[in-house]
């Protein structure tokens, strides 16, 4: 009787498996035959009612059928999984012969590229890079730089005032004052950073831009040291054949002061649109540190002297990459940025 029941279970299983189309149906059949209350599980529990001498044989018969059921179920499961995978691959329509998509990597902004060139040059000749706050005291931004209260540079039309004594810095020169105040001489430094001025936005002006200020203070520093440094700096930027010209000028915090021109690297001094036909391009201002500035920082001008210079980072980038509109640096237009 047990043998007949087992054959019936096996035949029934084969019939049901042949009609299965999904894994969920297969799981239901497994539970029906092998679960806690399944057909074969119940038969195992009935072995105790079989004569003692027939129990081993009955148990073996049930185990054999259980193994066959598990085998049928596993075979059907693999068949269904393979079929499901084939259907998924057909729907995905993946063409492995297509070339891979090139990964888009970011790169440096033209301002950053120029900044790193400048920093590497000055680091190579013994300078250090020092940064300072963008929100600055009026004292550091003006007074300590020999700019009195009634000076035009303090006009509200040019400066962003947060309060009577606090401004958004108009230059990075305050970093030089803070460094000199520490009294650690000699000093060889550059101070790159963002500055703010109340300018209208156009092709060559912006209310926020970047400057690099340089400062050297030591015993025996002369204007010749300043000239030699800026000539080497200009030739690093624009080529070894670049000529440099110093024109007398006036800055409140340097005496004597000068503006620096370089020979046009496009026309080699012959005259073109870039240099407006003059053969020369203005790039920066400089001079010997004013004695009043040294005194404000408790440095004796009779014992120490120094030079300072300031250059606009965007100004260099506009010239070096021959860009006509400064606004392109800030618009995040990928068509422009991908060129660098």
Description:
The model has no long low-confidence stretch (mean pLDDT 85). Strands 1-4-5-9-8-7-6 form a 7-stranded mixed β-sheet, sandwiched between helices. A two-stranded antiparallel ribbon has the order 2-3. With 340 residues, it is α+β, with helices and mostly antiparallel strands. The chain is built from 11 helices and 9 strands. It is elongated, with a radius of gyration of 42 Å.
Q: What is the helix fraction of residues, given as a range?
A: 40-55%
| Mean residue pLDDT | 85
Shape: elongated
The end-to-end span amounts to 88 Å
Kindly estimate the percentage of residues that lie in beta strands according to DSSP. Answer: 15-25%
Low-confidence stretches: none
Count of helix runs: 11
Quick one: how many beta strands? Answer: 9
Largest sheet, if any? Answer: 7 strands, mixed
Helix-and-strand structural type: alpha+beta
Question: Order of helices and strands, N to C?
Answer: HHHHHEEHEHEEHEEEHEHH
Radius of gyration: 42 Å
Which assembly state applies to the chains in this document?
A: single chain
